[in-house]
Design a protein that fits this description.
The chain is of the alpha+beta class. The chain is built from 12 helices and 15 strands. It has 4 domains: 123 residues, NusA, N-terminal domain (N Utilization Substance Protein A, Chain:P, domain 4), CATH 3.30.1480; 67 residues, Nucleic acid-binding proteins (OB fold (Dihydrolipoamide Acetyltransferase, E2P)); 74 residues, GMP Synthetase, Chain A, domain 3, CATH 3.30.300; 68 residues, GMP Synthetase, Chain A, domain 3 (2-Layer Sandwich). α2 runs antiparallel to α4, α5 packs antiparallel against α8 and α9 runs antiparallel to α11.
């Protein structure tokens, strides 16, 4: 059987367009034609159980269809076995136990083969393409990628990562209040890639700390060069984040390097994350110093470990710093605790001051009252 030149050109075009190898296309086609041949035999009222082998020559376009038979002394199944005498009569130089290939060229098979092969090839190509996509993106977990929002309706947000690949942005991975309109271009963190019966399922995130890490590496050369080391990142997506940094060069200030001239570096990252406020913290091996730094921008008066609790501290701030240390809805102290891994309890400490006339009068009244009671 011969494949037409148009058919071969179409297959070569698919190979180029889908980025698939010729060997993969040939294998898919051979499986499809073997399936088509069995369907043909069944339609003719013949037993389709014979093992079939199909070979496609992509240079000449020729297709050979063979049924495999095992040479035996006595035949129990005509679909799978052949006698030694019959094999020799067909021109095979065979012995008992050998497998011979009997070429078949049935009438009308071409039309049925084309119909069946087309369906199977399409499915095989889809499977192969899905595998290519899976292999490409499974190695990108933990990376940052550009994407375009192409669907945002009925609580479903889908992101196009390239011409043939889509990803899901789940609700829990979205920045609260951030708008996702079709056509919007954003950066995403590849959270998970797994193979399913419907193809690769790629999940991306806008709230994962890894996205901020990649943005910092992109925007701040000192991090990528290894002069600054990111020790930890915590985020509440779109609202606030804290980044703990350690410098490996005493001449490089972690905060200054991240903030940049007039705040250009940190502002660029903040804009990408829907205006998220980013606190840059100097990491310290001393946990009490680290906790003090983590509560920035609040100024801490004193940090004391709680002796009867593991990894717990009592932090004291002056009254005018209390709301700043705690943060809106407890956000600052909550992120500081997550960043350092310590439980943090904050209390106010009264500032040292000279007694006022009001204090003296109050003490005098109490003293007189006490004397009267006696």
């Amino acid at each position: 059987m011969q494949l037409g030149r148009d058919f071969l050109r179409a297959l070569n075009q698919i190979t180029r367009d889908r980025g698939l190898s010729v060997e993969l296309i040939a294998s898919s086609l051979e499986i499809a034609l073997a399936s088509a041949y069995k369907a043909y035999k069944k339609s003719q009222g013949e037993n389709p159980d014979a093992e079939t082998e199909v070979k496609v020559d992509f240079e000449t376009g020729s297709v050979s269809v063979c049924e495999l038979r095992t040479v035996t002394k006595t035949v129990k199944s005509e679909e799978t076995e052949i006698t030694l005498a019959e094999a020799k009569s067909l021109g095979f130089n065979a012995a008992v136990g050998d497998v011979v290939r009997i070429e078949k060229n049935p009438e009308d098979f071409g039309r049925i083969a084309a119909q069946t092969a087309r369906q199977v090839i399409i499915q095989r190509l889809k499977d192969a393409e899905r595998q290519v996509i899976y292999e490409e993106f499974s190695g990108k977990v933990g990376e940052m990628m550009n994407g375009i929002v192409f669907k945002a309706e009925n609580d479903q947000v889908l992101i196009r990562l390239n011409e043939r690949t889509e990803a899901i942005l789940p609700r829990e991975e979205r920045i609260t209040g951030e708008r996702y309109a079709p056509g919007d271009r954003m950066k995403f963190f590849v959270l998970d890639v797994r193979q399913t019966t419907r193809g690769p399922r790629i999940v991306v995130s806008r709230t994962h700390p890894g996205l901020l890490r990649r943005l910092l590496e992109l925007e701040i050369p000192e991090i990528l060069d290894g002069i600054l080391e990111i020790k930890n990142i915590v985020r509440e997506g779109g609202a606030r984040a804290k980044v703990a940094l350690m410098t490996l060069d005493a001449n490089v200030d972690p905060v200054g390097a991240c903030v940049g001239n007039a705040g250009t570096r940190i502002k660029a990252i903040s804009r990408e994350l829907a205006g998220e406020k980013i606190d840059v913290i100097v990491w310290s091996g001393d946990p009490l110093v680290y906790i003090r730094n983590a509560l920035s921008p609040a100024k801490v008066a004193k940090v004391e470990p709680v002796l009867d609790q593991e990894r717990a501290v009592q932090v004291y701030v002056y009254p005018d710093q209390l709301s700043l240390a705690i943060g809106k809805s407890g956000q600052n102290v909550r992120l500081s605790a997550r960043l350092t891994g310590w439980k943090i309890d904050i209390g106010a400490i009264e500032a040292d001051r000279m007694p006022t006339l009001s204090d003296i009068f109050h003490d005098f009244v109490e003293e007189k009252a006490g004397g009267t009671a006696k």
